[in-house]
Amino acid sequence: MGITNQPPDLLPGTLDLLILKTLTRGPMHGYGIATLVYERTGGHLAIEDAALYQALHRLDRQELLDAVARHRIAWHWVKGHSGHPENDRVDALACAEADAQR
């Protein structure tokens, strides 16, 4: 998928969502995107260069990069699969990112 240190249950499309979420902060170059995702996940997700640029091209073809630039996106967290250690870890990471965005 192009993400190193990838948890085995990471859903397809996660990379695209991470990129779009990062770009809600404003325009950013690829290195900045990869660095911010790495920092915001506490070093748990590192995006490989090739995967990042493939995803950026894919998002550009779908015109999602322009859509993110024009709109304020509110992300709402819905907790599921409570009690599973990996899901609880991911929940904690997501909650920390949501708090950091406020």
Name the structural class: mainly alpha
Identify the overall geometry.
globular
Radius of gyration: 14 Å
How many domains?
A: 1
Instruction: State the order of secondary-structure elements, H for helix, E for strand.
Output: EHHEHHH
Verbal overview:
This protein has helices at residues 14-23, 30-40, 49-61, 64-70, 85-101; strands at 3-4, 46-47. It is mostly helical and 102 residues long. It has a single domain (3-101), classed as Arc Repressor Mutant, subunit A (Orthogonal Bundle). A two-stranded antiparallel sheet has the order 1-2. The longest helix has 17 residues, at 85-101. It is globular. The model has no long low-confidence stretch (mean pLDDT 78).
Short description:
The chain is mostly helical and 102 residues long. It is built from five helices and two strands, in the order E-H-H-E-H-H-H.
Topology:
Elements: E1 3-4, H1 14-23, H2 30-40, E2 46-47, H3 49-61, H4 64-70, H5 85-101
Helix pairs in contact: 1-2
Keywords for this structure?
5 helices, 4% strand, globular, single chain, two-stranded antiparallel ribbon, Arc Repressor Mutant, subunit A, 102 residues, mainly alpha
